[in-house]
Amino acid sequence: MASDSQPATTPSPRRRMIARVEGEGADAAAYWLALGGIYVTFGFLWYYAAKEKLIDQDGHMPAGLAKAYRDTFLDSVPGLDASWIMLGILEAIAFLLFAASLVSGEFLPRRRKSLLLTGLGVSIFTFGAMAFANNIISNYSTVAELFTYFTGTAVVIALVLLMPPYRERHWLSRFTSR
């Protein structure tokens, strides 16, 4: 028996409109909160890490770490303080990229996020460099933590690439809408 009415699973036009508006609001809230979290987390992480190494410690590796790295590859090739300064410079570059991204307005949904993505790439490299250094002294628990940060940063890059302008404005609700 054929019926002219729509199936019960098809929402009314009014419900579809409400779902669309609610979806847009959720998408906007998720976008702004996620980007805010990225800038706050990475910006402050790299600011304080670089400041500690380059300004507070004047580029000198703390005695405890220097003792752990004594007679290693890092002690002989660049030197411990030079390694410490190079790590501080990497952290400062990452911070400056996040700051430049903010200043240039990359946080806006319509703006491409080249500086932000570059800052995240520098972050991955920095975590890799720290993991390498900790592998040298067999500090495997710290290597595991750094691998988690490395992997988490890769996930953040994927998240940024799912957001506008790389995807539609309804970047999140499109996964749940029919």
Characteristic terms for this protein:
178 residues, mainly alpha, 6 helices, elongated
Tell me briefly what this model is.
With 178 residues, this protein is mainly alpha-helical.
Helix and strand arrangement:
Layout: H1 13-56, H2 63-69, H3 73-76, H4 80-103, H5 114-136, H6 140-162
Q: Give the low-pLDDT segments.
A: none
End-to-end Cα distance, whole Å, is 27 Å
Number of helical elements: 6
Classify the oligomer: single chain
Give the averaged pLDDT, no decimals.
89
Strand content: under 5%
| Structural shape | elongated
Helix content: over 70%
The main β sheet shows up as:
none
Radius of gyration: 23 Å
The string of secondary-structure elements, in order, is HHHHHH
Structural class: mainly alpha
How many structural domains?
Answer: 1
Q: Give the tally of β-strands.
A: 0
Task: Describe the fold and architecture.
The protein is mostly helical and 178 residues long. It has one domain (33-175). Helices cover 70% and strands 0% of the residues. It is built from six helices and no strands. The protein has helices at 13-56, 63-69, 73-76, 80-103, 114-136, 140-162. The longest helix has 44 residues, at 13-56. The radius of gyration is 23 Å and the shape is elongated. The model has no long low-confidence stretch (mean pLDDT 89).
